[in-house]
Amino acid sequence: MALVGKPVAVETDARGRPVRFFWHRWHRVAGIVDEWREAGAWWDGEGERQVVRVLTEGGGVFELERVAGSSQWVLYKVYD
User: Which residues does the UniProt record annotate as the domain DUF6504 (predicted)?
Assistant: First the structure.
């Protein structure tokens, strides 16, 4: 597993779940493995984050996170 922490372009469905994202190239999401919400570092003024663990069509597993109320996504983890 590698921590990345880099902003990525993400296309979502009508419910706000990722359907594809760009990291070196476009990755199409084959399925959502898990999703949850985490409290951000409230002491630093961070809001709640949506975290989605996805399986891509190529067999990769990635975690994408988005700060609630924002359209900006971050690639948080890549699983080897």
Answer: 10-79
Q: How far apart are the first and last CA of the chain?
A: 6
How far from 1 is each of 13, 78, 80, CA to CA, in Å? 27, 6, 6
Phi, psi (degrees; rounded to nearest 5) at 68: -55, 135
> Could you tell me the pLDDT band of residue 39, with boundaries at 50, 70 and 90?
confident
In this structure, the chain runs to a length of 80
* Gyration radius from the chain CA atoms: 12
Domain count of the fold of the chain:
1
Neighbours of 80 (CB within 10 A): 6
Name the band, by pLDDT with cuts 50, 70 and 90, for residue 10: very high
What domain range is 47 assigned to?
A: 2-79
Question: What are 6's two structure tokens?
Answer: 């880099």
